[in-house]
Records
---
Amino acid sequence: MPEVRIRPAVKVSAPRPAPSAASADPSMIEIEDLTLHYGTKPALKGISMSIPKNKVTAFIGPSGCGKTTLLRCLNRMNDLIDGVRIEGRIRIGGREIHDGSLDVIDLRKRVGMVFQKSNPFPKSIYDNVAYGPRILGAGSRVDLDATVERSLGAAALWDEVRDRLHESALRLSGGQQQRLCIARAIAVEPEVLLMDEPCSALDPIATARIEELMEELKARYTIVVVTHNMQQAARASDVTGFLLLGELVEFGETATIFTTPRDRRTEDYITGRFG
Amino acid sequence: MSGIVVSFCAGSVLLALIPLGFILFFALRQGLPALGWAFFTQMPRPVGEPGGGMANAIAGTLILVGLASLIAVPIGVVSGIYLSEYRKSLLSTAARFSADVLNGVPSIVIGLFAYSVAVLPFRRFTAAAGGLALGIMMIPLIVRTTEELLNLVPETLRDGALALGATRARAVATVILPAALPGIVTGVLVALARIAGETAPLLFTAFNNRYWSARLDQPISSLTVQVYTYAISPYDDWHRQAWAGATVLIGAVLLCSLLARLATRRLERMHRP
């Protein structure tokens, strides 16, 4: 069964400077005039932004504003949905991801993803983490063991599971499962880590651990996180984008967005007037 | 008011269970006395000689059912995967409809079909033809259970595999199919129990054989056909043997259901907390 590829019609437009959050930081992801339609319904309208390297970037906004859709554009997970049409450009590490010559499998190796609901495979803890490396043709058993240990370590899970690596991953608690999913995503050494509301099903303690983890992981990875929780965006992110009805209303330093938003709608949202 | 409803429902359940109770009672009362070790190990004896067993028929049923599984399990599981992966394709819709129709075709008609394609051309009743008939009956059962169980696997697992760079085929083979496996195994065992009790499709395909035979190109005996043959005979000895055969059949079906439960539970323990 071949991977279904949707090659979007790339609209040629004069390049215009994308709003950059912190122009001093080198950018990892450049989005230019991105528009996405589900059938005839527009879900993202002309989004342009520049996501800085080795920072945590948060997308906030009310339900249905397109933040998850935007996130899923970055590893082309929207390709799987029927009737999706994408226009515009996304460059990750300087490379256009809708380029016909780009292998989507290769893209997903470079851009890992953690989902809203933790989704460990019904396999052992070890096999979950080893899944990605095995797809890429893992080396020797020794290498694989080392990768599994390193990834679980980086996800702050190694000490809790080192003695039961071959037990079912489904026996872990919700917070542990989500950290396992993070370990699984970073086992293939991606450059970018996408997180889709990674804490929405977790209690405050497990949430705090994931947020700590994001802080540690950003040294090695560029993290983009979708969150419903404004406190989380304020606490855990460096840069924030506020989306409303498929438009990027405001994008900038988290501190600025939360203290002196430029747009009235952003202010209304973060002060809890709607959403 | 709710008391009346509850007692009405409970009464209906009891009514539904009465036939099962009677069947078990009669089969066991008539069958158990004739059932002994010899029944499983010995060959049928000629009329008038007491004793003997159905060793050949029991082995025959196992061979026929095994043959049917060899045909139906690969075709059924692979088709089920296709139906679940390409839910809306024209081929899927057509295949789903065909499976449902095939499931409703009377078993004697399927026997007739196997007779015309696998018996007539060779001018001989064969175990292979019997296996074919049972296999055809089994395919739609396995296709639909496989499809339904795969549909139950959460999409988030697929997304997880794809996001790690798996191809669609790899995601199915390494994540989705294993997650549905306990259910599929149960489905196969239930289908086995169902076809093990079929008589009509065997009457003019595998036919019957008074002697021990494990050859696929020869007629072969089966429990159901043997029970049928004995039951319509005028001899008391044979009637007793028929009841014993029926008891063994019921036992085998029960065993299948139990195995299905056990298999599911064991596999689930690996897959669930």
---
Amino acid sequence: MTRLSGGLIDRDTPLDFTFNGKNYQGFKGDTLASALLANGVQLMGRSFKYHRPRGVFSAGSEEPNALVELREGARQEPNTRATVAELFEGLSARSQNHMGSLERDLLGINDLFAPFFAAGFYYKTFMWPKAFWEKLYEPTIRRAAGLGSLSMLPDPDDYDKGFLHCDLLVIGGGAAGLAAALTAGRAGADVVLADEDFQLGGRLLAESHRLDGAEATVWAAAVQAELASLSNVRIMPRTTVFGVYDHGVYGAVERVADHLADPGGNVRQTLWRITAKRAVLAAGATERHIPFADNDRPGIMLAGAMRAYANRWAVAPVKRGEDPIAIFTNGDDGHRTALDLMAKGAKVLGVVDPRPDAPRFGDYELFAGATVTGTKGRLGLRSIQITRDGRSEWHPVGALGVAGGWNPNVHLASHHRGRPVWNEGILAFVPGQGGPKGLHPAGAAAGKGATAQALSDGMGVAIAALGEIGIKAREITLPEAEDRDQKQVAFWHVPGKKRAWVDFQNDVTVKDIALAHKENMRPVEHLKRWTTLGMATDQGKTANISALAVMAELTGKSIPETGTTIFRPPYTGVSLSVLGGGDTGPDFRPRRLTPTHGWADAQGAVFVEAGQWMRAQYFPRPGETHWRQTVDREVLAVRAGVGLCDVTTLGKVDVQGADAGELLNRVYANMMGTLKVGKVRYGLMLREDGHAYDDGTCARLGEDHYVVTTTTANAGLVYSRMEFARQCLWPDLDVQLISTTDAWAQIAVAGPKSRALLSRVVDDFEISNDAFPFMSCAELTVCGGLRARLFRISFSGELAYEIAVPARFGQALMERLMEKGADLGVTPYGTEALSVLRIEKGHAAGAELNGQTTAAMLGLGRMVSQKKDSIGAVMSRREGLAQDTRRLVGLKPVAAGKQIMAGSHLFAQGAVQNMETDQGWVTSSCYSPHLQSHIALGFLEDGDARMGEVIVAANPVEGEEMKVEVVSAHFVDPEGGRLRD
Amino acid sequence: MTDLMPITVLGNTAALAETFGALIIRENAGLALASLALRKGQAAPSPFGLALPGVGRAITKDEYGAFWTGLDQWMIEAEGKAEADFAASLRAEAPGQSVTEQTDGWVAFDITSDQGAAPIEMLMRKLVNIDTRSFDAGSAARTLLGHLGVFVIRRSEDRLTVIGMRSVAGTIWHDLSVTARRLERQSVAAVSDR
């Protein structure tokens, strides 16, 4: 055990956990990393590329090394940072990315081949032979790549989402964040305070500085208590604000139950969208290191992290308590670590500081003007080489803290393309102008990291931010705090021949950066991609600026001239489960059910998804073993008797107003204003570019009242397009629109006996052919007084109607029609039979109206009225479109019994099959039980003049082809006598 | 009167009601709806004595109500008249305007709290991107709930109505009930939820 005294752990609550199967004990308040360190475990993982032994490097979410697999079974979670994994009773963790044991990783052999794995390795190595890429190289690389493994089991936990609104969002609960939140909270502003840690305080928890003469945690706890007492403040620990989005929306993940072994009925995580009028970015700063030879051994970590482990978690990060610890720093800040460790009773070797005039702040050995030039220790640091004035000495140590300065966490400020700017005074990038509007950096995130500065900046920034939205906040009394200027020099790396790691997670060394420079991959974005610097789970939080500095040195430019990387969301990894919002399986997306869904289900219908709708596809009967049997039966029943199909899904738009007809004239290609009351007309809409858009019927129920029907797929689109036309194109028209798709259950009653059936349900309504001919419509009552609408329209080519009743009565009407039509052989049919019926009749549907076809191609060219203008009419006559000679035709296989594949392309017999000779394609195909043959529809060049010609339907990709005869698209009743009978 | 038996939006014969801790969610199968849109240049009428509300507002008077749905457009509500021809009644109250039957185009879920505003607002925070601070009694909004567009009406501090497309009633019920159930489970933690 290497526990020290004090700390913010609860020693009365010990927690048992395992790492790689071995039992350990920590305390409540520990992270997995602090608990492992307390047990003398330094080795926690293997590096990505070279499989080098690695230990914990930081004490926060920036961790590049200590990635573990957490938990067991379905909750197994790869690539979890041990530094932020809260310890809980029974936690089990495993190291990852090794073959064999962690200590004897067989893939450690990669390290011996390091010279071959230099920057750009993939790009250079796997160039040839070309064929090897897909079959050999890529699979091999993919096998070797990646760190942790997935359980391959479904996530058993529940995830949630939510929305918050506030005046001020405070991101980070350290000194600046707490001061900002308290200032705003006291001013009565609605405040959300989010912090990724489970305890508020930020660096106040990690430092030994006192506030008002007491431990900083006393002040932090008092502030937290006051904030908790304010009803206008919401405190959200374990919540990472990961991105800034448009309109002041911030994405945040609250880890509700990540710190529990089992969420116990609670959600695991919640995705919050926080709409904030203003935000304070008090995200603190991340310490950077100083690359030197072999600087990646377990036991080498950031000096600031060392302070956190000592002060917050009461841990000396060594294997044995008596092992001495050394500090390597380029400024005053690192010295604090030595002082804090000594105050806690840890053994300190001394401080290595490259400044010849480095100050000494306490009773420790000072190696002024010196650097660390080497390390030893296979699985953990055993000694370091300190070089001064050309003389080198080896010193045994158990750990080394490295302090290279602090980088403000500018990440969120650089979303929305905000560019950080270089501050030479603190040798770091700070948030620049042009970042997210309303986001104000404060404290260490703004480069003001001394505690007193952070406190007063947090307060000041909150006052200013609230002032912008008219909330007057007063200054609060801040505690007395340290305000020492931390001097440092620009010392970015220790030059040398051996490998010095810059980016630990991706095994990028100074040499790799030098190579990238040599190979002219000098711009930052090139450097990143050539070397993989800054990629993967840590996104280079501890590496990016050091790498820039090294590149700057090599190019002889300044750091700001060399550039900066910008950051995209998310700040840290966000699980897909929480982004999904919790709904999986059948609840993953909305399901629209028709009014007769329950009835169809009870009939044993097989359903098919049509957009969001679930539609009955066919209704199998006992004894039917293949869907085709069912569909053939349903089709023949419609042709011979009467069938029923729920067609509620077709869009319905109610159009009213004095100019209703005029609006319809302008959105339909054909004339609608002339339609007589009580009549229905088939209508075609064009897109603005002149292509066919949607078809349907338009019924005129009154002088200034129409009902437009659309295809199922385009129902919402057509409605919104009509609204656009009404509101934006022609606001002068007196016309009002509203969707009624869901309001009316609509049932198609089709077949020669449909009139007989309907006559049994209508109330005192004359339904004879003379009184209610083809393309009539009426409002009437059915079944003893229920209001209904009747349309005599046909999609099948048979005598047919569609009857609509208020949706709640749809199922009852369906049942009534089934009951009343039993002697007529009434048969429910699904979308499959509906499709066969319309192909037999040659009616266009989605496959023909696919956005590439014109009215002329559909054989509806004359519907585009020349007498008026309408959307797309002029464009439909443009050169290039009007000359398209492809026309809708019917196709029959020459060899009986052969199926014509939809999607096949059409060619003249004997022609070479390529793009130039392509004459069209097959759009729809089915077996016609009526014709007892496979049939198809398709578009064919000059198709209307080629009846009887035999052509080829081919699939050149698969080398398949068949001969087909060109016939009329109207396989059934081309004269249309049946539907008019 | 027709002898056809209506079914509810969820395919049942009786409207659903379920309790989730402080919240009760009830399907309001009796709510009749009809849209009212003004013809060009017409003054707003006062159907059933309702003073038609402005942007983002809703009002109720006796069994009638109205909420704003767009420029010169409202949805007019009538409790317990879902099976009558309410559009015809409204047409008589607003002659010369565009009236469309909407009753069965929608499902209405009434959510009531027996512990004041807090449970209602907690539910809202999990479901809709609406600032509960300013969404007081008489507020109405068209917004997204899950993946679906809905109307949300704050009838009073402790009563909310969610009106969505009838065909997706099952999905809306899923969203409401799953969320309410989660909040019920978290009710201990919810005491400190602000």
